[in-house]
């Protein structure tokens, strides 16, 4: 899912909580299919029709690395398009 935290009236407030911090061991595949260090908003060049904000993904990735510092590199592949119903996604998967 693409995050909408911190978005009000179609504007992201720019605040990144400590739990969503950048980490060189967390990468994202950007809209040009190039790996880069992940940072919020994670979907900024993927979900182009919506204002992106904070989501749960960076919290999850940082938590994994805190629990297991030897885990290695985490690669995130953001691909959510806001407003897509879960029913439509299920049909595409089938």
UniProtKB/TrEMBL annotation:
Pfam families linked: SASA
UniProtKB keywords: Hydrolase
Domain Sialate O-acetylesterase: 1-86
GO MF entries: hydrolase activity
Protein's recorded name: Carbohydrate esterase
Native source species: Nicotiana attenuata
């Amino acid at each position: 899912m693409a995050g909408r935290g911190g978005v009000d009236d179609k504007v992201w407030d720019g605040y990144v909580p400590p739990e969503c911090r950048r980490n060189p061991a967390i990468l994202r595949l950007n809209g040009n299919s190039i790996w880069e260090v992940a940072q919020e908003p994670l979907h900024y060049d993927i979900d182009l029709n919506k204002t992106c904000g904070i989501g749960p993904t960076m919290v999850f990735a940082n938590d994994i690395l805190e629990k297991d510092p030897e885990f290695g590199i985490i690669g995130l592949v953001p691909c959510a398009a806001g407003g897509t119903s879960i029913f439509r996604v299920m049909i595409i998967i089938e």
